[in-house]
Request: fold
Amino acid sequence: MAETAMNVTRFETKSHDNADEVRTPNKTRVEVVRLPGFTMGRLIFDPGWKWSECVKPVVGTDSCQVAHVGYAVSGRLAVRLNDGTQKTFEPGMSYTIPPGHDAWVEGNERFVCIEVMSAEQFAKA
Reply:
């Protein structure tokens, strides 16, 4: 697979603790940081979070239609594609998820991840 070269022209840092945009649907926190040419998101899902219960009412689709590329920082997240394929993400795992899925937090710990593709669209009406 061919890789696309990144074009980084500025040396810059920003903190997710002082995000450019924050979205807070039920049991959800999306912290969006915009860097020159790139958007990063820290997503935090509380125990009991489920996409179809917490985000679906905001976006109005039957399943999540956003593609994700990210890294799991803490907690566990189960993801089921519309075709029934299911995987669980644990801390230290990088992942890709195509559009067409549901997801939910497993256990009693918050799921925290950093995403590099979906932050501009996730949980946005």
Q: What stands out?
A: The domain at 20-115 is CATH 2.60.120.10 (Jelly Rolls). The radius of gyration is 14 Å.
